Amino acid sequence: MKALQVGLAGFGTVGAGVAQILLEEAAWVERRTGMPLRLRCIADLDLERDRGLCLEGVALTRDAHSLCRDPQIHVLIELIGGVEPARTLVLEALANGKHVITANKALLAAHGGEIFQAAASAGVHVGFEASVGGGVPILRCIREGLAADRIVSMAGIINGTANYILSAMEEKGLDFPECLREAQAKGYAEADPSLDIEGQDTAHKLAILVALAHGVQIRPEQIFTEGIQHITGRDIRYARELGYCIKLLAICVARGQELAVRVHPTMIPCQHMLAKVNQAFNAVYVTGVHSGPVMFYGQGAGRMPTAAAVAGDLVDLGRSIGSGCTRRPHPLGFYQDIQPRPALRSTEDLVTNYYLRFPVADQPGVLARIAGVLGAHEISIHSVIQQGRRGRGPVHVIILTHEALERNVQAALREINPLEVMRSPALLVRIEHAVD
Amino acid sequence: MKALQVGLAGFGTVGAGVAQILLEEAAWVERRTGMPLRLRCIADLDLERDRGLCLEGVALTRDAHSLCRDPQIHVLIELIGGVEPARTLVLEALANGKHVITANKALLAAHGGEIFQAAASAGVHVGFEASVGGGVPILRCIREGLAADRIVSMAGIINGTANYILSAMEEKGLDFPECLREAQAKGYAEADPSLDIEGQDTAHKLAILVALAHGVQIRPEQIFTEGIQHITGRDIRYARELGYCIKLLAICVARGQELAVRVHPTMIPCQHMLAKVNQAFNAVYVTGVHSGPVMFYGQGAGRMPTAAAVAGDLVDLGRSIGSGCTRRPHPLGFYQDIQPRPALRSTEDLVTNYYLRFPVADQPGVLARIAGVLGAHEISIHSVIQQGRRGRGPVHVIILTHEALERNVQAALREINPLEVMRSPALLVRIEHAVD
Fold it and tell me: In this complex, do A304 and B290 lie within 8 Å of one another by their Cβ atoms?
């Protein structure tokens, strides 16, 4: 092969970044790859908008499927996003013997198994480094760097929007709605931010991390998922007082053949490496049996970091073709026993410490009432912060528990929330030991 | 190929760890590789010592060269360390068509070019992930993950012994000799710690990082190198007062075609990610044009983290052979223009802020005298800490400079050090902006 011919589907922010690297840094990329990478064709519905690039010699089309049929194209870069029509396009490309590189976490989380199978049948490569952690080569590290190790736990900050909001709440002492508006104004959050703040985007990426670490395919809807929308500036301040930060973590803990997989706001000790990950930065903290803790940190999103990750996958593919590879390594790096149905441990069985905030009426006996219900559910109290009286609103009773069983905590809250002294439902934040 | 046959030269701490993974976790490693990895033969001068492993079916020999001649062996793992006889052994293995995996940073720093050339001629693979950063897949991240990016700067904490000592000085408020003794007692420092504390080990690893990031081979003796042996508990305390930590950093900054490459104790802001890297942990903070800052963190040494990195290289090699590769990707990931003689910028041309500590006689007029010399060399003062009088010893004048040229600072110190008021030579610590 004289040059790797590239078709690019999706000419948005990241797509334009990839085109920029391929067009403006062709000599450098060729030096790293061992062969030229030629951007042959770009497909997008909007071909009018100026992306500030000189596209001489690049064909443009509104029909992404034509890239799959072009016999000159070796590799399709899919940057359309979302499940359809991306899924159909990717499967068509694979069926036509094209390699595929994608940044599409929603697609891989929902249909990774089908896509990897189609790639294996066609003997082509699927690269997806950019789907998790943007410019941080987390997937490669897990699949290749830690390949000989067994991963015990992973805890990741893998949604930049949620981390930006929580960091802003912490730094500025503001509440969630103000920080969300600020994130939207600065372009860190979308107009509809629900995928980011409610945790689904994090769950999509966690499904990919779990597949790479354990060789199992789980569906995002199997992942226990809670967002950050109920966290208040008050919780951040109390957490800090107790020596903790609150982060939206993607967590996977292995015990024997079972995996506990969950996404939720989490209290971690302020001196932990993950607690230092602020703004829109991402980090994944992976603990291996042999390697011990390893952390990867960097910009988890943005045009150029993500584009560099996509281009890195292209370089890798070019090197592999240049080495005369006739078969492709398994995309997950597991060659046997991909378990279609892994054993997942229910979050109900979690044992950890809990931060509980109860917005209550300002009247005597409330703490005794709450503590009584907790005690009846075998939840013992580590410490209590009771806010002094202030104006007309509810007062807040904060309880930090000793280790307790999630099932018991949920049962206690179901009993406490309807009490007439409660002004709104209790807030629960788990304290994470997997990151210790 | 039905199985990858492995010969292991060097059955010390890491060698025994590699043997443990290959023997006790064979099924897992096979699942990750796509073929079995068979430990065929171990060579070491000491075959009597019990390593707590069942070596049934593994041949043992005192003659490492016999591994190079064994036609059954596909890959030699070199864990002897040091330049010779490791160099001769590795070249013999390559000449005989064996792949080589090594953790030997001293060898690669001094003879990497020769070894990579020999591997290319023989069409075999050289894996060396374990040579820098132990269990942290730093090299793979630079060569593959960031392959499409251009690296602007790197700042690494890549010697666990030096970092352990500096962390202990910081945490316990003790001086260098006590912390060195503690590190030796705990096994973090060797009986002769000079390679670690004087910075040469860091320089060896930096030469490898520079080769991977920029495709150039530099010799360790071309790297400006200062150790940590002159840093006192007092310096750590003053640094902290000024908002800084002191770390032994390996630094490479690219500007145009020039590289500034140096190893020295460095003051970095306390809130920087690298400042949180304590104990024997390692981290490399890499800034790419597109990716922005990326950091890799973990255990940089120790039996099992290093063994897992060696075994990871074996898995990688097995996957590549299983994919039918007939040629090998370049070990540095640069396919053209490896520059044999890169342009190195002299540390004399560095412009940065300096921390200067002057141990002086307790008498009037000293500060004026020192400030006068600094001023005459165009060094302007940002702030001064002057210690109050205390007993008979020298007092210490601490000066933080504005940005100044290293050449001027060195000239000023050459003039100040012989002054009769100086009780011992001034100490200089550079403040690093490359990590910002």
Answer: yes
CA distance B82 to B108: 10
Q: Interface pTM (ipTM) of the complex? A: 0.95
Assess if CATH 3.30.70.260 describes domain B347-431: yes
Instruction: Tell me if chain A has a CB within 8 Å of the CB of B123.
Output: no
pLDDT digits (tens, 9 = 90+) for A266-317: 999 999 999 999 999 999 999 999 999 999 999 998 999 999 999 999 999 9
Please identify which residue in the block is written with the tokens 């226990």. A224
Q: What angle do CA A145, B273, B257 make, to 5 degrees?
A: 75
Q: Which residues pair with A294 in a beta bridge?
A: A286, B298
Mean pLDDT for A153-175 is 96
Q: What is the pLDDT of residues A334-380, one digit of tens each?
A: 987 655 567 999 999 999 999 999 999 988 899 999 999 999 999 99
Are B145 and A150 an interchain contact pair (Cβ–Cβ within 8 Å)?
A: no
SS3 A37: strand
Crossing angle between the packed helical segments A176-185 and A160-172, to the nearest 10 degrees: 120
Which chain A residues touch B171 with a CB distance below 8 Å? none
CATH class for the domain made up of A4-134+303-322: alpha beta
* Domain spans of chain A, in order of start: 4-134+303-322, 138-299, 347-431
Determine the CATH number of domain B138-299: 3.30.360.10
Q: Which of A199, A245, A211, A205 is nearest to A347 (CA)?
A: A199
Between CA B300 and CA B131 the distance in angstroms is: 9
Interstrand relation of A395-401 and A343-344 (parallel, antiparallel or unpaired): unpaired
pLDDT mean over A174-178: 94
A117 in B contact zone (CB under 8 Å)? no
CA B70 to CA B65: how far, in whole Å? 9
Give Cα B376 distance to the centre of its chain.
Answer: 37
Q: What is the DSSP letter of A144?
A: I
> Nearest Cβ partner of B273 from A29, A276, A327?
A276
Smallest Cβ distance to A293: which of B298, B307, B324?
B298
Give SS3 for B262.
strand
What integer best gives the mean pLDDT of chain B? 94
